[in-house]
Amino acid sequence: MFAEELPAGYYAKATGQAEEFAESMNSLLFALGLAILIVYMLLASQFDSLLHPFTIMFALPPAMTGALLALFVTGYTINIMSVIGIILLFGLVTKNSILLVDLTIQKQESGLDREAALREACPIRLRPILMTAVSMIFGVLPVALAIGEGAEARAPMAVATAGGMTISTLLTLFLVPVVYAYMDRFGEKIRGKRDKHGRAETVAEEA
Q1: The dihedral formed by the CA atoms of 44, 187, 118 and 127, expressed in degrees to the nearest 10
Q2: How confident is the model at residue 203 (pLDDT cuts 50, 70, 90)?
Q3: Domain range list for the chain
Q4: How far is CA 153 from CA 32, 66, 87, 101, 147, in A?
Q5: What is the mean pLDDT of residues 56-81?
Q6: What CATH number belongs to 17-206?
């Protein structure tokens, strides 16, 4: 119907349930973007850094990729339930990255260099990250398999969560330490230039 040419002055518009669904999706996408912004602000406040929140949130693209891939493989579409699952997934994935980055920063503050801190933090955080991921995946598995009454409606949420958690956990254990090393090195360069500029201004004032 939408492909047909309409007379001048006429237009086609989806109403009813289609219109309500579009409004709900727009609201959920807005909530998703707002959640990412709030997470960044909280992480920047917690770590007193504008760079390390990007390190932590670098796990979100693999999570999104895994969720979309799982939905595609299982034949589900992006709907309200799957978007809710992705929002839930972002919170879980961010928590795993926080565990790793926070311990690495603690190790650096105790006197270790960047590489040594990563080598100590990664094995320590490996077990809790894997335990969280495995328990979450198996927890939503019955819903993803549509086992139980009414589970079919919630299956896309579980599929998105399980798929994103699987891919993100596997990639996060490798990507987050690498991104952390680059971000920390970049931060050192910025701090070095800032300190050098500050010392130059001090010398100029004394002269």
Answers
A1: 20
A2: very low
A3: 17-206
A4: 21, 20, 17, 36, 11
A5: 89
A6: 1.20.1640.10
